[in-house]
Amino acid sequence: MEGPWPRAMAAWWWWMSLLLLGIAGCGGVLQVHGQVDNLGFISLDCGLPENAAGYVDSTTKLRFTSDAGFINAGTNHNMSSEYITPLMGKSWHNVRSFGGGAGARSCYTLGPLVAGLKHLVRAKFMYGNYDGLNKAPVFDLHVGVNYWTTVNISNANTPEIYEIIAVVPGDSAEVCLVNTGSGTPFISALDLRPLENGLYPMSNSTQGLVLLTRSNFGPTDGVILRYPDDPHDRFWIPQSKPTEWSEISTAKRVHNMEGSSFDVPSAVMQTAVTPINSSSPIQFTWDAEPSANVPDPGYICILHFSELQPLPVNALRQFYVTLNGQLWLGKGLTPQYLYTNAVFNGIPSHGSHQYNVSLNATTNSTVPPILNAIEIFSVLPTTGITTATQDVSAMAAIRGMYKVKKNWMGDPCMPKNFAWKGLGCSYTVSSPPIVTGLNLSSSGLSGNLSSSFAGLKGLQYLDLSRNNLTGSIPDTLSQLSSLTLIDLTDNQLNGSIPPGLVKRTQDGSLTLRYGNNPNLCSSSNYCDASSFIFGHHFLLKVIINLVVSTVLVILLLSVLILCIKMRRRGRTRNNIKRQNEASITTSHSHNNNGHRLLRVDNRQFTYSELEAITNGFQRVIGQGGFGKVYHGLLEDGTQVAVKLRSNSSDQGEQEFLAEAQTLAKIHHKNLVSLIGYCKNREYMALVYDYMSQGALDEHLKGKDNNPRTLTWRERLCIALESAKGLEYLHKGCNPPLIHRDVKTSNILLNAKLEAKIADFGLLKAFNSKGDTHVSTARVVGTLGYLDPEYHATYQLTNKSDVFSFGVVLLEIVTGQRHILKDPEPISIVQWVRQRFGCGNIEGIVDSRMCGGHDVNGVWKIADTALKCTAQNPLQRPTMTDVVAVLQECLELEVAHDDVNGGFYSVRSGGNMNCYGQYDTGSSTNVSQSSTMFELKHLGRVPIMSTDTAPAIR
């Protein structure tokens, strides 16, 4: 019979669990100092007085400190003595509460951290009638600018634990308690644990994982396993069993394979449950928990298996895994002996009121299913926009220097209703919010004027009046071009007003108020004298600078005239043939890393030589608007491709020469290499590397000459290599280059399916490395790949290439053309966006891969592609970001070797290169593209049952 136990029984179970947890924490404490231990752990006892010494748990050896150094709001309280027991851990004895009324936000800042890494955050709450009101509150938790969960305390003696795994984008993680008008928020303890980025790959920079349950099956001692058994300090809650289940265990170590995505402790995997009746399934259910903030929550369920019994030769343990009747894997799962296997749904499950997972033995199985542990998460979007990074850093420095409290916690401008008091922020669709106004009048500020004010580049007004500021006025304020008002009245400033500010007040671009600063030089005799001296020194400097500048200009003009004369003499000596032919020779240049690019003198071919090389232009291997591409063979047997421009070509001479000169100058393993060229009055041709496997589009379209379908791993490798080539154009060249015609027909493959970007006829360079865009007289490119913003504004940026590459990624995932007939013509971007928004990931995947793909990896690639094709260029990632995601997805593909229908069976790890060969002895390092927040309260667990057993919480 399925169904939950009464809530009283559930509360009893969790209370006992936490008491057991408390036993591990009260065996004795040691006095310590410090806030972050050498593991990177932060363990805060919230409400512990600021001057109280920290303590070390004698069992886990983890250090707990006061939370006072991580927040500047709230008051400390002790829990009512009637709720404190000898077994309760010390961190539950105190709370910190936060007044302020409805809408108030109070934030912890946990750090310093390494930006872009994953962390586990755990918040603990026990009301314990600390305020004597006997009324447990309800309030919200936020992580950064994103809603996390609603804390709903059921009664005074019920502890609640919430946990989240997420990517932390900055150098600190912010956990905020928000008053929703249903009682005063409080907190008992707060933990932060760093995680390797290879763990929990379902979470990334756009979504976190909120914990619903993490359960350990089969232990008989009832102990919650955590650190040091789990080096990541996850809580593995023991689950008792129905009478129809039996417990099995082993004393032998259970191993995680290299590159494991979950790193489950051996102590957890050494126990399991299995039905006594071999024909009975293992089942568990959980209810969906929609809310106003998350009306349709998506869930990810991870099942952990390991065979603990050495089965006889003729015995087999094999079972199916289903979710709401849907088969996860196309074949039965057979756990490996003493090695961890995991099965999980890479795409969150939506749309059901209740979810049921069932493990059913196959017809070939001779022993019943087994289950060692489970983890269930709800997916939390973490895409909230944050204030511009530079402004966040500047405001944090200002807050720290002047010890401003007010509501200065969390993000300065976001969410809008929580913007810091005294701040004016500008909100636009195309860019992150920036600080435009700062009013700190009558705020009790003291000390010098902070140089960090100059970091607020969009600041328009600054009011620091009626404080006790001392020292001089920094001239850096004059460099804030948007600043129109500075009010410094009623302070204790001294010195003279900087000349930059004086100049701006004189030209009317700035209003400066500085009255009632007795020691500030303005119109006194002393200031007049100082101004006189300063003026003479300034005049002397001007004269010296003018003389030096004049001499330098004369020298530069002389050198320029000399160079022009020498160049003209050289041209006179050149013969007519040299006048008519372009010289394609690169000069020394530097890339972003400061490395010199070698001088390359490319071979110049005659037309007759091209005829011989191509055997009379016999074999056509490609064709485009420029003309045809022919297969050729050099004298030494090297195969080449000869791109011959036809007289009717759309590509003009200028574009042809641009491509030739570009190919001569740039050198990267993922860009085609120029071998030589031919140019005379009648013919123009390029000779470059022969790519025997042709263009990527031929493989995706499945032409007759390419009957074999590319595997998902091959597609990932091709995408990654192409992205690296494009990234080199954007970042490795000086000035940066924009391809302008990125498409699958311009990605060529060699015999090893290594990808190189080709066709540089439309390539465009920035005028300088600091430019953000290039204006063009006409829009060029290919319909379907063309950036709509570029098409509308004629403003070309490297994000135009990113858009085109996003279309390429969608073609790689779907196997569809960039423009489909569905039944009317539709862009692949719209086609995928419609299906992706409904969670139909399998509906977009190329069916010719026959399920041989990591659905989570496919999801990440499709998501990245849609970000690349965002309407607003500022919302698109850079190619460096795309390379990081592709690298991560390739490593995820290595970690999963059995994929079907969106669910994974993880058995082994290890690095595999792009061409299917394992690199043994090396660990999998996933790029820092994702940082996860994982957490939800541990008081909610799935209902476990067999067909006849009572439910267990």
UniProtKB/TrEMBL annotation:
Record bears the keyword Nucleotide-binding: yes
Residues that hold ATP according to the record: K643
UniProt xrefs under SMART domains: S_TKc
Cellular compartment(s): Cell membrane
Catalytic activity entry: L-threonyl-[protein] + ATP = O-phospho-L-threonyl-[protein] + ADP + H(+); L-seryl-[protein] + ATP = O-phospho-L-seryl-[protein] + ADP + H(+)
Highest taxon above the source species: Eukaryota
SUPFAM superfamilies the record matches: L domain-like, Protein kinase-like (PK-like)
One Gene Ontology cellular component: plasma membrane
Keyword entries, A-Z: ATP-binding, Kinase, Leucine-rich repeat, Membrane, Nucleotide-binding, Phosphoprotein, Receptor, Repeat, Serine/threonine-protein kinase, Signal, Transferase, Transmembrane, Transmembrane helix
Protein name: non-specific serine/threonine protein kinase
